[in-house]
Design goal:
Rossmann fold; seven-stranded parallel β-sheet; 46% helix; binds nicotinamide-adenine-dinucleotide
Length: 265
């Protein structure tokens, strides 16, 4: 096991569930001090304990990343306790709203506003408050969680798609504005990844649709994303910034008629 994050400090927002949880485990296994920043007051201490039980250095902080005062306190606390912040994984999102996110004409404005706050304002605030620390120490890596829904049109998930397109633009702005000062910023665009988000809020048929349109014989698991977050967070990717990396079973690479052609034999 490589320990490329030894001496480094990482904040993982939404680290108490799903992909964020796997990212927290993975970075800790590879030597990082990991801060699990999540609003889930039950799961945050549990994930902290699970990581500590296997020898990792994890610290759970219950926080709502859409609240600027809470984000300011989070960043102060992490800086005071650990002296630096090397990695920010902007992973948390308001996924509970995806169940109420249909086509545009049927989309409630309140759902759009809630989605933008949860999916864009949260990453913006964390970035805004972490940046001064990264700039003061000479650099850092920010990894944002976008989605293929932020790159391609969808029949539903209208608010979600708009919010993830904004996350992609946030990524490029950070890369351009702070790259010369050592701060890199990249985004990951997953397609379907099996987490509670996909099992609790998406109709079960979605999995079959994604599977049919994937070029791989499987859909994604949280560890598939955690591996790419770890790569983008580490110095192994030091020449990459401002990009969106699809981790999607090839969905965004394929012609839209591939699945139908395959069915024709
Ligand atoms: N699962 C997928 O298929 C999929 C696909 C593409 C992109 N994504 C993106 O990946 C990320 C993680 O998704 P997941 O499926 O692991 O979700 P999840 O629901 O399993 O976990 C999300 C975590 O974020 C936390 N959270 C949400 N809002 C928060 C807030 N305001 N403050 C603090 N914590 C907050 C939740 O408590 C939860 O622990 C999200 O950005 C999502 O949009 C997911």
């Amino acid at each position: 096991m490589t320990r490329e994050f030894e001496g480094k400090v990482a904040i993982v927002t939404g680290g108490a569930n799903g992909m964020g949880e796997r990212v927290a485990h993975t970075l800790a296994q590879r030597g990082a001090t990991v801060v699990i920043a999540d609003r889930d007051g039950e799961r945050t201490p549990l994930v902290e304990k699970e990581i500590r039980d296997v020898g990792g250095d994890a610290h759970g902080i219950v926080v709502d990343v859409t609240d600027e005062d809470q984000v300011r306190s989070l960043v102060h606390e992490v800086s005071d306790r650990f002296g630096r912040i090397d990695v920010l994984d902007n992973n948390a999102a308001a996924l509970e709203l995806t169940a109420e996110d249909p086509d545009l004409a049927a989309l409630e404005t309140s759902v759009l506003m809630g989605t933008l706050v949860g999916n864009v304002v949260g990453p913006f605030l964390c970035t805004k408050h972490v940046l001064p620390r990264m700039l003061a120490q000479g650099g850092g890596s920010i990894v944002n969680m976008a989605s293929v829904s932020g790159m391609l049109g969808e029949t539903s998930l209208s608010a979600y798609g708009m919010s993830k397109a904004a996350v992609i633009q946030l990524t490029k702005a950070v890369a351009v504005q702070y790259g010369k000062y050592g701060v890199r910023c990249n985004a990951i665009a997953p397609a379907l990844v099996m987490t509670r988000n996909t099992t609790e809020w998406m109709p079960p048929e979605f999995k079959d649709v994604y599977l049919r349109n994937s070029l791989t014989p499987y859909v994604g698991e949280p560890q598939d994303i955690a591996e790419v977050v770890a790569f983008l967070a580490s110095d192994a990717s030091r020449y990459m910034t401002g990009h969106v990396v699809p981790v999607d079973g090839g969905i965004a690479a394929a012609s839209p008629i591939v699945a139908d052609r395959r069915d024709l034999g």
